[in-house]
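Data availability (excerpt). The following record was deposited with the supplementary files.
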Amino acid sequence: MTTRIKILSTLAVMGAMKDLTHLHQAKTGIAIDTAFSPTMALLDRLRGGEAADIAILTAQGIDDLTHQGIVRSGTRIDIALSFIGMAVKAGAPKPDIGSVDSFKAALLGAGAVAYSRIGASGLYFAELIQRLGIAAEINARAVIVPSGFTAERLVNGEAALAVQQISELLVVPGIEVVGPLPREIQTVATFSGGLLTDSGAAAELLAFLASPVAEPILRRAGLEPASRD
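Predicted structure:
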């Protein structure tokens, strides 16, 4: 019988995943080892042959690995929806980002803006500021984080604003989420899981992560449960 399950998971669901795996481990007695990293880094590791039982990535990432024969066909389960947001250091004034114009003004009027280099939110934000015509101004003083949580740069004073998945912002203590990007420029990421082995215990865990029991935990972590329709 399987007594240990290995998960490779995107950072965007880390807050929820820690609580969910602890809960499942307490119920079943099966140990769970979870390694967290940005989606692009995990794709490289999995394509390079790293072994795991479950991968949790963007839906597109799971689909790509399925087509490549790394994730087992037919095992994808959508777990959560994630939205990109902005944060400030706790106690700092929160800018108005309710419209596209006010969002642009907040970015241009702040000091350094922290965003990620390889995470899904960072790649989207880099393209977004190009579309908005403010990339040169923002990047001239941006803190582009190679890997990890952009909100940490608020706490240490390197940046005035941080942009990332709201679920990733909430992992960092000492910050406050201003809110999501305006609807017109928001993008919704679906995070999904897939099996890399035929372990029945891993399949049971993956189903648990997308079960009704997981929904309040996902919401507390800044995520929305994926639709089960």
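Summary of structural features: DSSP finds ten helices and ten strands in the chain.
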